[in-house]
Amino acid sequence: MTPKAKARTEAARLLAFFESHGAQVVETDILQSAEVLLDLYGEDIRARAYVTSDALRGEQMLRPDFTVPVVQMHMEHGAEPARYTYAGEVFRRQEEDAMRPSEFMQVGYEVFARENPAAADAEVFALFKQVLAPLGLRVATGDMGILMAAVRGLSTTDRRKAALLRHIWRPRRFRALLERYGDKAKVLPPARAALLAATDALAEAGPFNGLRSRSEVEARIAALKDDATQPPISGGEAEILDEIMSLREKAPMVLERLRDIAVDLPAITPAVEAMDARLTAMAARGVDVDGLDFEGSYGRTTLEYYDGFVFGFYAEARPDLPAVASGGRYDALSSVLGQGRSIPAVGGVIRPELVLALGDKS
Description:
Strand order of the largest sheet: 1-5-6-12-11-10-7-9-8
Low-confidence stretches: none
Radius of gyration: 23 Å
Order of helices and strands: HEEHEEHEEHEHHHHHHHEHHEEEHEH
Largest sheet: 9 strands, mixed
Shape: globular
């Protein structure tokens, strides 16, 4: 049997496992609308996806993942609550490591449910843990919702908070913005100072030939000028963000520390209470939450739709391998794709060829 055939056999086993737990088997098109993915992720997605086009449908992408098309399918005609499972190939460009595959299988499980998100999180995680138990994998968990709530709770402008939230999945850019907005930024960077002084020059400029119109450039300069007049993010609040991002401990210990942090930044309280409810629901499903690792920055380099609980399963003896499985909560994605409707959702995917590589014989 060829490696691809073996991966398909393993995918069928995993698919049957999720189906046996109440999931409906669904399929999605391999060719996906590039417009939808570009609207969600911007031009960055081009570096990760294969792009093609035709005269009638415009730009298309070979399916880079399943979550977006499954959400679209559910928002168009899905019942509530719903559980879906799927299996098939996804395609990712690899420009830095030729040994990493550009085409591989994924098997997924997604839950759409309005009631009790903590129970849905626990359900998805517990099923993944159960089916992957023979491999003895290291488990990592996090919560993007806590960090996002902390950003929203900062004593600064909505524009600055929106910029930080937009780049929360890009750690270097996020750090640069936080330093720019913070009280350690005593002077403007030279390039930015020059831009702020450009209003008079713009008034005397000739015709515009670039991609930006005069009004767009004027609006950007005005925004930068306004931002320069705003008070900085305090050192205390910046330290709180740093502390949240540096948390790395067992989940119950992190929960207690987050409760302490919430005294100084009350905006995170609902997210902390959601984490507490999730851990309680996990324990009820037999998960050893006392031994569960939590990382404050986990999830910040994955696809940008995760906005709550996130998790991953890794082979410690094989650091060369990517996550065997990963997933999380993506409530906001259904709002973006739902055309006025939304529903809380959580799910994850497993790489069957990695399960095989690690010797699962169950």
